[in-house]
Amino acid sequence: MDYQTISNDLTISGQISSDDLKQLSERGVKTLIVNRPDGEGPDQPNFEEIKRQAEKHGIAAFYLPVKAGAVTDGEGKEFGLLLNNHPLPAHAYCRTGMRSLTLWALSQSAAGVSFEDINRSAEHTGFDFSGLENRIKHSQSSTEPVPMYDVLVVGGGAAGIAAAASLLIRERDLKIGIIEPADVHYYQPGWTLVGAGIFTPEKTVRPMGGLIPAGAEWIKSAVAQFLPEQNQLLLEGCRPLGYRQLIVAAGIKLDWDAIEGLPDTLGKNGVTSNYRFDLAPYTWDLVQRLKKGKAVFTQPPMPIKCAGAPQKAMYLSADHWLRHNLLKDIDVSFYNAGPVLFGIEDYVPALMEYVQRYNISLNFRHQLVKVNGKEQLAYFKQLGDDAAEQLVEVPFDMLHVCPPQTAPDFIRSSPLVDENGWVDVDKYTLQHVRYPNIWSLGDVMNAPNAKTAAAARMQAPVVAHNLIANLKNSMEMSQYNGYGSCPLTVERGKIILAEFGYGGKLLPSFPKWLIDGTAPSRAAWFLKERMLPEIYWSAMLKGKEWLIEPTIEDLRKIEKVHK
């Protein structure tokens, strides 16, 4: 565990795991302050999980969550009160440590400590502290010039890195900055296979630094505020950056707290989710250990990323139980907040064959709202005009949860969003509807496509081409057709390869004789297990646009068609 010593009484770090608490205890830490809000990242234990483990090691844990880059003076004072009123030494953490350091600096300033003394204590940490100087000194302006970029990319996930790589393939001399605080990058589509014992977790993660495209600068920070009227944004620590063009690819937030009791029981009591890196192995552990009882799989209201993932976990689990002659003693149920099994009708008949093979009970318009882990009870709210008011109580031995999902907090509070909190773009050009030098792709924007990695792969060259056209005042623009792909793992060794675009139009990538997407296929399984991970790491993130080169049309013609 890496950490920075601020004083004899305080150390700070980035995200910790439950295993790190033993080391903190051995260092004599008595108080833990958690400054990272739950649900910010896919590898992030919730506060309740950390608190339980901390208490086992004699450490008192406190939750003081703050938004990245939006630390208030009041939160700084609260941080100071925690340090003053609880046993020391203390340890604080957030995603990178910057928010915890900012809170400490503001608490010191409130106590009358000068900026020079604060900076002297913190300068060895390596964090850029310059943005706080004006704030702490209560100055209204800065004499420092604002660093400028041709393109700033917010987010170092699949969409952000792919877009940056596609830009650099086209224009090598662009000055591009990728703003991403995380140290690692995840191949999230692989977690379905981790939860089925096919992939190891290690196969789905790589260091972020090795994936930043050559020619782009990695800005290891988080965005605090968007200032589109000034073509600027603020990073945490109040540091401004300027841009000619901006790409927003900030991903999606998994809102575990939206389900009452869920954060308290994740990773134990038979409650799991393939939507989190550290929990996917627990899914496989539960599948292997369950010999009889009730297995419940849930899906929340849309939108969610990879809408087929809740079903994938269910089919692969049931397939394992069937192969080991256990399924006759296991009741498998699917509770979906939506009204249908899958949104594109062409794929439903083949899926229903597997529902019948595994004897799965389908329950539509049922939304998970509460979990009692100790009693192993799940509670569902019925949806629709004729729904009963009382909650439906469902016992379980295994519960696989797909959490509700929203845009990240710093996006939803920005001027870039629509009424539902998603970045507001033209669904064809992916250009912002109000700010013509802002673009968005991936899970964070509001185009009505499936939120999948395959969609981001198709969107990246569209954004790259259109952004450069905008820089050059060209009328030649590319259009995104809404393509998304959902490889539905219906059994070990077979996949229904759903590929579709806007309006549910089927958009197969292969001839029907090779892969018939409406039927289970071994060829599609080979594609998912063997080829797609390498395509992801070695093609998509490198700007290689195999089978996805954008079509180019005159913008005036496009506008006429859409009118």
Automatic annotation (TrEMBL):
The keyword Cell cycle does not apply. SUPFAM superfamilies: FAD/NAD(P)-binding domain (SSF51905). Its cofactor is FAD. One of its GO terms (biological process) is sulfide oxidation, using sulfide:quinone oxidoreductase. Residues 2-110 form the Beta-lactamase hydrolase-like protein phosphatase-like domain. One of its GO terms (molecular function) is quinone binding. It holds the Pfam family BLH_phosphatase. The keyword Flavoprotein applies. Keywords: FAD, Flavoprotein, Oxidoreductase, Quinone, Transit peptide. PANTHER family: SULFIDE:QUINONE OXIDOREDUCTASE, SULFIDE:QUINONE OXIDOREDUCTASE, MITOCHONDRIAL. This is Sulfide:quinone oxidoreductase. It comes from Reinekea marinisedimentorum.
